[in-house]
Amino acid sequence: MRKIVMSFVALGFLAAPMLMLQGCGDYTGDTENTYQESHYTFIDNGIEYGSGTVLNCDDANCSVMVDGSGTPVKDGDDNASDGDAVVGTYSAAYSQSECNAAGFFFCTIEDKCLNQRVDDSSSSCSK
To answer: Is the torsion defined by CA of 89, 94, 100, 106 positive or negative?
Structure first.
């Protein structure tokens, strides 16, 4: 019995310094809270367009608005106000196709665009 007690005491003397060193060690890596902005994309003909891309929409579909040279129009461009929706920009006035193309969830029960991501499984009309 005495040998067992002595073994535990010896083990305690060995383990204590290791625990103290670990507790006081330098932490490496990212220890700050960081915020990563959510990015929205719209895919048109297999090409991904990011937030700020202006869209032209009809009742069922949207497509990327392009200028006279074929360059996609971005929010803030001269003719951006001619578009129907902007990828990643929420508006309660969006139709269902505009809402979904912009990246937001359209609640058909309430018949309105909600400020919830369309690709988030927790998006619902009951929030």
So the answer is: positive
Residue 66 neighbours by CB distance under 10 Å = 13
- Please say whether the beta carbons of 42 and 48 come within 8 A: yes
Question: Taken in order 111, 113, 114, 119, is the CA torsion positive or negative?
Answer: positive
Report the residue count for the chain: 127
HEC assignment per residue over 30-78: CCCCCCCCCCCEEEECCEEEECCEEEEECCCCEEECECCCCCECECCCC
How confident is the model at residue 121, as a pLDDT? 87
- Residue 90 has φ and ψ, to the nearest 5°, of -85, 140
Q: What is the DSSP string of 66-92?
A: B-TTSPBPBTTSTTGGGSSEETT---T
Residues of the chain with pLDDT under 70: 1-38, 127
The domain locations on the chain are 41-117
At 107 the three-state DSSP class reads: strand
